[in-house]
Design a protein that fits this description.
With 136 residues, the protein is mainly beta. Helices cover 12% and strands 45% of the residues.
Amino acid sequence: MLRITVSTAVLLAMAVLPSSADAAEPYEGAWVRSAKECGNKDGPTSLTVIDLKVNVDGKPRPMVEQYENHCFIDSKSTAGSDTTLEATCYEFWDDFKKKTNGRKATIKLSLASKDRLKIDGKQYRRCLEKGTKTHS
């Protein structure tokens, strides 16, 4: 099975993600629970990349990417600083390609500031565009 490693996903995402100033939505970008996870390390981390225009097979698709968790956003609703995403998630990229083993998920985002975001009630901080540090 084809697996996209976290470091590969981060590098790809950071290369195509708009800067926080250019993002269409304030929650787009790379988010982590602790600053040390912004590095290019491989393996399970809290790194979460939210991008509403990931190029998948030549078409822009809205996604939330986490370690072994590729979620395609089916719909979103926003009230104030809170956004709820309804998504279909796949553990493996091959499962997405085959459209098998997808599971429905609800992801709740609550923007505290331009560099702080709660994802499903857990506090995250934004990684800088280079993916090496976070804002304090």
